[in-house]
Hints:
mainly beta, SH3 type barrels, CATH 2.40.50.140, 3 domains, 5-stranded antiparallel beta sheet, 1 helix, 52% strand, flat
Amino acid sequence: MISTSDFRNGLKLLLDNVPYEITYFQHVKPGKGGAFVRTKLRNLTNQSVVEKTFRAGEKVGKPDISEVNMQYLYSDGPYHFMNLESYEQLAVEEKAVGDSKNFLQENMEVRVLLFNGEVLSISLPASVELVITKCDPGLKGDTVSGATKPATLETGAVIQVPLFVNEGDKVKVDTRSGEYLERA
Length: 184
């Protein structure tokens, strides 16, 4: 059990058999009445955010959550991952992979969040290097405004890149925001 005095951002807890993560908390001690803790919780199964207030000293459950290092193998409908310790393979549906699919490369190591053996989410490295497969050429002299153009990556994702980047270039992309960082 987890007490409200142990609350911190990023802490995972269990309410009504659903795993939540604390995104914000505030301990409030009014002049009259008992202290309480105001929180914003993100549901780890459907990503919705709820606000909940707990009395000071109240206890909540601890979820059976584990993070496992896995390697992405391939996709043929579901996405297939292999546990790097036990070499077991796991098929994951597209909704659990989410927007991470835009930056997944074969043999990439990722962190998989599991709740009771079910995949909740996938965490990619902070940045990945991908090759541009389709990109229009930049116009000469159109560089004053720091303009960008769309480019299609080898994974099929489309990002905005500076005009000097060409087809076939390898670029570094931030996986959290999907933004171009630099040429690799």
